[in-house]
Specification:
Layout: E1 20-21, E2 49-50, E3 102-104, E4 112-113, E5 116-125, H1 132-144, E6 155-159, E7 167-172, H2 174-182, E8 194-196, E9 199-203, H3 204-209, H4 218-233
């Protein structure tokens, strides 16, 4: 699946193995309006953790049921998303698996940020009714946003369509995500995303349907997917809610519960302050 595996720059290597949960039995999903969904995950909500193989990789724990009022609150900074479109597909419209081959978004983006430039590609699994060009435009915008990872003053990004790439954002069917993530010991259960090696694997279900907290703002949720999984690629681990009413960190597993935090999809706020919380083992 990996066309090129460039070594990470020294400041992007993880200081310790990323966490990944043990494989678990799959449970029922998306039960009516209170469907269970997840940003990039693996295992059960109460899963124990183990270190993956030397290749690294990261996927989050599966969600707990949505509670009344769960996830209520305001974005710390409006992420300039659009409302959920009326033509959003249903769960049954989304293909379960695909060929495992990908179309690369053509062209390249301008370099954004300062510091070490990380080159990335955007790819869409073949056979999907999605435009690689449109998805690349969305990913470019997320990574270029002033509230994104470029605000750390060390990260710069540029999308390419050929040549070496440090990481690849791939939108794929659940089955293909399972296969790629499973090569690194992660069980994404047909539902969620992961970051393994240079691959930022985006589950088609999550890209199209979001989660209950972001059901009316799918575009914002897409920013959360990209920022969370690229955050893992950059070496960031999970953190918890810093306190009631405060913005939820991007590296918080928001689908497991907001714990009083307000929804937020950006690593930094509008004043350039990093949004974080207590480390989660």
């Amino acid at each position: 699946m990996i066309a090129y595996k460039a070594p990470l720059p020294p400041d992007r290597r993880r200081s310790a193995p990323a966490h990944a949960s043990r494989r678990q039995r799959k449970g029922p999903l998306w039960a009516g309006a209170a469907a269970l969904v997840l940003l990039g995950g693996v295992g059960a909500a109460a899963a124990d953790w183990r270190s993956p193989d030397a290749s690294g990789g990261h996927a989050d724990a599966r969600p707990e049921p949505t509670r009344p009022g769960h996830g209520s609150g305001r974005h710390s900074q409006p992420p300039s998303p659009s409302p959920r479109p009326s033509g959003t597909p249903s769960e049954s419209d989304i293909p379960v698996t695909g060929p495992g081959t990908f179309t690369v978004a053509a062209g390249e983006s301008n370099r954004v940020g300062t510091g070490t430039t990380l080159r990335y590609r955007v790819e869409v699994e073949d056979g999907l009714d999605l435009s690689a060009t449109d998805i690349a435009r969305q990913v470019d915008g997320i990574l270029a946003d002033r509230r994104g990872w470029t605000a750390d003053g060390r990260s710069a990004f540029q999308r390419v369509s050929s040549g070496p790439a440090d990481f690849v954002v791939k939108v794929a069917t659940p089955g293909t995500v399972d296969r790629v993530c499973g090569q690194y010991g992660l069980d994404t259960g047909g539902e969620v995303n992961c970051n393994v090696a240079q691959n930022v694997m985006v589950n088609l279900r999550r890209w199209l349907l979001a989660t209950p907290v972001y059901a009316d703002d799918v575009t914002a949720y897409r920013a959360l997917i990209v920022n969370h999984e690229v955050g893992h690629f950059l070496g960031h681990g999970h953190v918890g809610c810093p306190g009631p009413g405060q913005p939820a960190p991007v590296m918080m597993q928001q689908i497991k519960g907001m714990h009083g935090c307000a929804p937020n999809v950006w690593p930094y706020d509008g004043q350039g302050r990093y949004v974080t919380g207590p480390p989660v083992a």
